[in-house]
Amino acid sequence: MSSDKATIIHVSNDEKFTNTANTTFDKAFPKKNVFFILVNDITKPTKYVTLKEGVFLRSNKIESLKSLVNELNSEKLIVFHGMNYHNSYIVNRLTEKIKIIWIPFGVEFYGNPFLFKKTAFYGSLTKDLYKSKFENNQFKEYLKTNLRDSYYQIFKNTKSPFVENKLAMNRANTIGVLYKEEFNLITNKINKKNFFKFTYYPIENMVDDVEERVSGDAILLGNSASYTNNHLEVLNKINDINIGKRKIICPLSYGDKEYASEINKEGAKLFSDNFEALIDFMPLKKYNEHIKSCGIVIMNQYRQQAVGNVMTMLWRGANVFLNEKSTLYHYLKRLNVHVHSISKDLNSLNDLCLLSKEQQDHNRNMLKEELSEAKIVEQIQNYFKHLR
Q1: Nearest CA to 35 among 47, 45, 44, 17?
Q2: SS3 46
Q3: Which of 286, 310, 312 has its CA nearest to residue 300?
Q4: What is the DSSP annotation of 279-328?
Q5: Adjacency order of strands within the sheet including 55-59
Q6: Could you give the 3-state DSSP secondary structure of residue 121?
Q7: Does the predicted TM-score (pTM) go above 0.85?
Q8: Do residues 300 and 231 touch, judged by C-beta distance below 8 A?
Q9: Is 66 helix (H, G, I), strand (E, B) or coil?
């Protein structure tokens, strides 16, 4: 496709992670990256991606994807950011000689029903809530699945999105993730891959003010209105240990609105005015200012989720509690970061203490070593120099 065979080709979507990836790869190999951004309508402005030199919009309609496949089949290596249906369509139609590097967003892996049950990452209370809302819709789900399969087969001449997705993940040669614990979990479900250390979360991109620290003892609970946050389990646990007038801030501005309503009601019932649900969208700067009082963070996800939130709050000095089922917990413990287990370390009011200045500084040093932009750029250079 390109006369300069040193160029690194990327395929992505109009997602918030894409700009960070573009910036980081460009610092590793200046002016040697080409990004194809798949969108519904190339005539409309992008929501997240900044259009600049080396960034090209392509329609995600099937005929356009076919054309792009023909162009890309002359390449030796292609980086795919996320693996949704459209990215998967391309991967599954490229020649086997092309090396595919897949940098997961997470949802394509954890949300694929051929890999995990819908409730695989729910606690018992959350699972009961989910079943109470959806157990009567099983026939509808069955019907929808079969109609979806037929629709894609008849009108697009492809397999259904989840099937295309699983095939593409298996086709990839390399997975780009931050830590081996997550890599090992992924490769237990799909074909063996090579490991490429990469993250969308360099410290410099996560915080507005690198010197700012948290300044209160409020509790930040979860990151979204998603069942995978397992809010109910935490709300009941901290209610049992009697946190008094401690403030709980719970972001619920994006995700499942019905779930958000249920969590808001339960939080208000247990903690009255001390529970603050963030229902309305808040600009990032205002949000960061709002949660500055949160010296305690509780993220009860069983799967990798809210990595950026966790890293940001650790950097700002918060005492973070994670679920031991999460690969993120084990990764941070391996780094010797001061992070705690919800099941083992959160059993009394005394456990909800703030980190000391020495502990905060220690965490910053560990994260800087792992997540500085310079470190990530170096890792990209080291991995790609023998592939290009």
Answers
A1: 17
A2: coil
A3: 310
A4: -S---HHHHHHHGGG--EEEE--SSS--HHHHHHHHHTT-EEEE-TTSHH
A5: 55-59, 33-39, 8-13, 77-81, 99-103, 174-177, 194-197
A6: coil
A7: yes
A8: yes
A9: helix
Strand partners, 33: 8
Beginning with the edge strand found earlier in the chain, give each strand of the sheet holding 219-221 in spatial order.
Answer: 275-278, 248-251, 219-221, 296-299, 319-322, 340-341
Looking at the predicted structure, is the pLDDT value of residue 148 above 70?
yes
DSSP string, 184-251: HHHHTTS---EEEE--S--HHHH-S-TT----S--EEE-SSB-GGG-HHHHHHHHHHTT-TT--EEEE
**Average pLDDT, integer, range 27-54:** 96
Q: How confident is the model at residue 141 (pLDDT cuts 50, 70, 90)?
A: low
284 confidence band (pLDDT: 50, 70, 90): confident
Whole-angstrom Cα distance, residue 89 to residue 66? 9
94 burial via Cβ count (<10 Å: 0-12, 13-18, 19+): middle
CB 214 within 8 A of CB 322: no
pLDDT of 165:
97
What H or E segment, with its residue span, contains residue 264? helix 257-271
Distance CA(4)–CA(1), nearest Å, equals: 9
Return d(Cα 41, Cα 230) in angstroms, integer: 36
Q: What is the DSSP string of 5-18?
A: TTPEEEEEES-HHH
Dig out the tokens for 39 from the structure: 């969108």
Question: Which region holds residue 36: left if phi is over 0, alpha if psi is between -120 and 50, else beta?
Answer: beta
The partner residues of 141 in beta bridges, in order of sequence, read none
DSSP 235-246: HHHHHHTT-TT-
> What pLDDT does 3 receive?
40
Q: How confident is residue 65, by pLDDT bands cut at 50, 70 and 90?
A: very high
Question: How far is it, in rounded angstroms, from Cα 311 to Cα 298?
Answer: 13
